[in-house]
Amino acid sequence: MEPIDDRVLVTGGTGYIGSHTVVEMVEAGFTPIILDNLCNSSMESLRRVEEITGKQIEFHNVDLLDMNKLEEVFENGSISSVIHFAGLKAVGESNKFPLKYFDNNITGTVNLLKCMDKYRVKNLVFSSSATVYGDPHKVPITEDFPLSTTNPYGRTKLYIEGIIEDVSSSDSEWNCILLRYFNPAGAHPSGKIGEDPKDIPNNLMPYITQTAIGKRPILNIFGNDYNTIDGTGVRDFIHVVDLAKGHIAALKSMLKRNKGCHYYNLGTGRGYSVLEMLHALEKASGKKIPYQIVARRKGDVGSCYADPSKAFRELGWKATLNQDDMCRDAWRWQSQNPNGYEPITENEQKIP
Ligand code: NAD
Ligand code: WQD
Predict the structure, then answer these.
(1) For ligand 1, what atom is nearest to the CA of residue 183?
(2) Which listed ligand is nearest to 131 at the C-alpha?
(3) Where is the chain membrane-spanning (predicted)?
(4) Among 98, 180, 216, 236, whose Cα sits 20 to 30 Å from the Cα of 3?
(5) Which of 101, 153, 226, 341 is labelled catalytic?
(6) ipTM confidence
């Protein structure tokens, strides 16, 4: 494929969604330049991305809070656009350390926007989240739903959306796409890259796969008294490769100079319950996964799934992978990498 003459800075590019997006970018002919401080990722993910793509990727170990180093990347970079993934994302941790979240996510984004403004790089794709819809009054959720938040992490996404909107309406050169992800799941079909929580997983899917492989004794299901198909929470799980492709669609739409600030839901439009996901992973792994029902988790909502039709209409993107694909790929990643990107010990080699 002819390379697209477009050097795109990817902040957070060694993380879960960033690494999958970098793979798709290379395949689509873009030149990704990764910036990451590795606070929640590792160089091994970059090495694996290079293995999958067969390309060497430019990497900068830079913290968005370090304005001098950030400027150097822009000064020497010939960057045309930015995809901004970098941020902290653990809801529970954000309740304990809100200032850390405001500093890292909000100040980090303001620094990035200042550099972009200074070096006249005014094309931005930002990782927002369905968390900005708070407790939705109905489902499916469209982009014009009222916005609210239940935790400091969510507040950073809400504020950053507002900041980007203000910046883009101050100067008609800006071209911003804000992607509201629903629940990313799964891994690259090669099994080489995937989600690698550094601690006890906060999210459902890595918790399920770690329980299936025996790293966790039992899955706690947070409530079975919601008004859903089986009482457990319903979410719009989206394969991370589909999500990554949503960024390619956004980049291509920016190349057409679609100026302003645009919001899109990236979801499948279909919700699955916690129990449905558990049983699908049992099928994919061939393992019985122990679980128990415990109290609801504070701040959780019953049902949350997208109406993704705006992204299809305007970006030509829609999810194509299904629940079986997500579970198969999540299990392949987990079983081939029981320790994530950490080396496998002799004992673990015996795990199937
Ligand atoms: P991740 O933690 O795997 O990736 C984020 C990356 O950003 C990490 O590699 C981390 O090292 C880097 N980073 C954090 N702070 C930084 C800083 N100050 N300077 C430089 N690098 C920094 O998370 P992810 O799941 O890939 O999420 C990517 C983005 O998508 C985040 O903004 C997250 O809030 C958003 N998002 C994630 C989900 C989800 O469920 N995974 C859902 C909705 C939105
Ligand atoms: C999904 C369902 C839980 C873990 C979070 C953030 C959101 C976004 C995506 C970044 C819920 C249940 C979970 C477990 C369980 N992230 N669950 N046992 O809460 O929809 O969204 O991640 O933007 O901001 O809030 O995702 O994976 O944590 O939970 O029963 O051990 O699984 O109650 O119903 P959530 P999740």
Answers:
(1) 40
(2) 2
(3) none
(4) 180
(5) 153
(6) 0.99
Dihedral of CA atoms 204, 207, 213, 217 in degrees, nearest 10, equals: -120
The DSSP secondary-structure symbol of 144 reads T
Distance CA 286, CA 145 (A): 40
Spatial CA neighbour of 291 closest among 173, 166, 204: 204
What's the CA gap between 109 and 119, in Å, rounded? 15
Contact at 8 Å (CB) between 106 and 156?
A: yes
- Count CB atoms within 10 A of the CB of residue 326: 28
Residues in CB range of 98: below 8 A, 6 or more apart: 152, 155
Q: Is 89 in the pocket of ligand 2 (CB under 6 A)?
A: yes
Q: Report the half-sphere exposure of 252 (CA within 13 A, side-chain side).
A: 14
Neighbours of 130 (CB within 10 A): 23
Give pLDDT tens digits for 297-312.
Answer: 999 999 999 999 999 9
Q: Whose CA is nearest to atom 44 of ligand 1?
A: 129
CATH class of 7-336: alpha beta
> Is 201 touching ligand 1 by the criterion CB < 6 Å?
no
d(CA 126, CA 263): 10
pLDDT in tens, 164-186: 999 999 999 999 999 999 999 99
- Give the CA dihedral 200, 159, 260, 129, nearest 10 degrees: 30
Please, which residues bridge with residue 35 across strands?
11, 60
> pLDDT tens for residues 24-79?
999 999 999 999 999 999 999 999 999 999 999 999 999 999 999 999 999 988 99
Question: Going by C-beta distance under 8 Å and a sequence separation of 6 or more, which residues neighbour residue 284?
Answer: 324, 327, 328, 330, 331
The verdict on whether 153 is a catalytic residue reads yes
pTM over 0.95: yes
